[in-house]
Automatic annotation (TrEMBL):
Transmembrane spans: none
Pfam short name (any one): HTH_IclR
Record bears the keyword Zinc-finger: no
Natural source organism: Streptomyces echinatus
SUPFAM superfamilies: GAF domain-like, Winged helix' DNA-binding domain
Residue intervals of the IclR-ED domain: 68-213
Protein name (database record): DNA-binding IclR family transcriptional regulator
Biological process, per Gene Ontology: negative regulation of DNA-templated transcription
Domain HTH iclR-type: 6-67
GO molecular function: DNA binding; DNA-binding transcription factor activity
Keyword vocabulary terms for this entry: DNA-binding, Transcription, Transcription regulation
UniProt cross-references to SMART domains, sorted A to Z: HTH_ICLR
């Protein structure tokens, strides 16, 4: 019993390490091959890890590291926020709009860091902890675009009025951060996003990704 329990734990940890080493997730078949076990064992391992939010599966069935891995370390979110804040501050001040770092949490987008500009007369109130579906709003849509084209330059995503009437958003996904899916973006009270904002958001996303590596 002890040997089997240790073997199961070992396999579960190996699953997490394998998923952490890929940006695109792995299928059950790929995990089965890499672990040298049958698919039934992999299904059980993934189901257990999913219950603890350590693994999630996307709509295509590919398994990825879940945000629960971040929760294992109580200081991880503060460290992520701290790493992202310089780039977010610069973005917010440069654009004059509220800047944010958003991570995937299950099927939702979760804002984990928000910086508001200091010099504007008004701006969108956006708070850390705000959640919304991944398929609504620039932050979530940018993440989904990176999933759909993982090998391509994802660029940036623009939206208007999807989360708040009269507000427009621009976001670019984090690229090359193992085990973390997220995006950096801005939200502003405007009918459309100025042309220079998209490329500036992409630049900020690259800065944050470098800080998190």
């Amino acid at each position: 019993m002890t040997a089997e329990t240790s073997q199961t734990l070992d396999r579960g940890l190996r699953v997490l390490k394998l998923l952490a080493d890929t940006d695109h997730g792995l299928t059950v078949t790929e995990l089965s091959t890499k672990l040298g076990v049958n698919r039934t064992v992999v299904y059980r391992l993934l189901a257990t890890l999913e219950q603890h939010a350590l693994v999630r599966r996307d709509l295509g069935g590919r398994a990825r590291v879940g945000l629960g891995v971040l929760r294992l370390g109580r200081q991880v979110h503060p460290l992520v926020r701290e790493a992202a804040l310089p780039a977010l501050r610069s973005l917010a001040e440069d654009i004059g709009a509220t800047a944010h770092l958003t991570l995937v949490d299950g099927t939702e987008a979760l804002a984990v860091a928000v910086v508001e500009p200091t010099w504007t007369d008004y701006h969108v109130a956006y708070r850390a902890g705000f959640r919304h579906p991944l398929d609504r709003g620039a932050a979530g849509r940018a993440i989904l675009s990176a999933r759909q084209s993982p090998s391509a330059d994802p660029g940036y995503t623009l939206t208007h009025g999807e989360l708040e009437a009269g507000a427009s958003g621009a976001a670019a996904p984090l690229v090359g951060v193992t085990g973390v899916e997220g995006s950096v973006g801005v939200v502003m009270l405007a009918e459309s996003v100025p042309e220079r904002v998209g490329p500036r958001v992409v630049e900020a996303a690259r800065e944050v990704a470098e800080a998190l590596r």
